[in-house]
Design goal:
single chain, alpha+beta, Glutaredoxin, Immunoglobulin-like, 2 domains, seven-stranded mixed sheet, four-stranded antiparallel sheet, 7 helices, about 30% strand, globular, Ig-like_fold, DUF1573 domain-containing protein, DUF1573
């Protein structure tokens, strides 16, 4: 069962990767399959870095564990609004509580507290300043592989971040429900995107930027966009929630609101019922 789950996870994540990359990911998944995740002897969980809470997950049949390192854009990695939505979906689907165990290794405690307050994230979090959790387990460097579904013995059942990939979310729900999660089969189609990248150029930091790109359904079935994930909270996409008929086009809008003056390079990932899904759009620019 574990092997099958992990194999499905890999195929869902990397079906469009080169063969060499597939081999690399397969070796990584094989390494973590069934591996026991170790937890620090004493971990302090708080709400937004202020109120300490008694948070126990020892007796749970399953638990979702995620580790966020201090490399790169913290807000981009956290995606707390998406975690809240996924947690709500799990709660509404199951008839038993599933603990979500968050270990954040902050490069800036003040920033991390601000983000949890900004996103109204009131779930217990361990701010692991000494990085004890990672020292015990030596997690992969790729953000995608720093989230795990564990069984009651803390062994890895599935690996991958469900808030970044709807296929992984589907996999997690399927395991948690014992295969009872409802799944609607949608026929695959083909899609093309008119641009692979968008350059916003230079603009004043406080000025909201918008650019458009077009998706064309070049296949034989209705194109459905499952989800659009951005690599940063300052990037949003207004996309079509309705199906796109064969031969038709749909214009999508990318919105960028800079949090600070900087040169940026971000990624928009589009998940849909197309053979070449996910589609990736690179956006760059310079907020002055």
């Amino acid at each position: 069962m574990r092997c099958l789950c992990l194999l499905l996870c890999v195929l869902a994540l990397f079906s469009s990767c080169k063969e060499s990359e597939k081999d690399k990911i397969a070796r990584l998944v094989e390494e973590w399959e069934g591996k026991e995740i170790l937890f620090p002897a004493r971990s302090v969980f708080t709400i937004q870095g202020k109120d300490t809470v008694n948070f126990s997950f020892v007796d749970a049949d399953y638990k979702v564990v995620t580790y966020i390192d201090s490399v790169g854009c913290t807000s981009c990695k956290l995606q707390l609004p998406r975690w809240k939505l996924f947690m709500q979906e799990v709660d509404s689907t199951l008839n038993r509580p599933i603990p979500f165990v968050f270990y954040f290794h902050p490069k800036d405690m003040k920033e991390l507290r601000y983000i949890t307050r900004r996103d109204a994230f009131i779930y217990p979090v361990c701010f692991d300043e000494m990085d004890d959790f990672n020292r015990l387990n030596h997690f992969p460097g790729e953000m995608t592989f720093q989230t795990f579904l564990l069984d009651k013995d803390n062994k890895v059942v599935a690996i991958g971040n469900p808030v970044h990939n709807p296929k992984l979310k589907e996999l997690y729900l399927k395991i948690l429900t014992g295969g009872k999660a409802e799944k609607v089969e949608i026929p695959m189609t083909e899609v093309s995107m008119d641009v692979a990248s968008i350059d916003f150029g230079s603009f004043p930091q406080l000025e909201k930027q918008e650019r458009k790109f077009t998706l064309t359904n070049t296949g034989q079935h209705v194109l459905v966009i499952y989800d659009v994930v951005t690599s940063c909270g300052c990037t949003k996409v207004n996309y079509s929630k309705e199906g796109i008929r064969p031969g038709e086009k749909a214009v999508q809008t990318v919105i960028y609101e800079a949090e600070k003056a900087e040169h940026f390079s971000k990624t928009v990932t589009i998940y849909c019922n197309a053979d070449n899904s996910p589609l990736r759009l690179k956006i760059t620019g310079n907020a002055e």
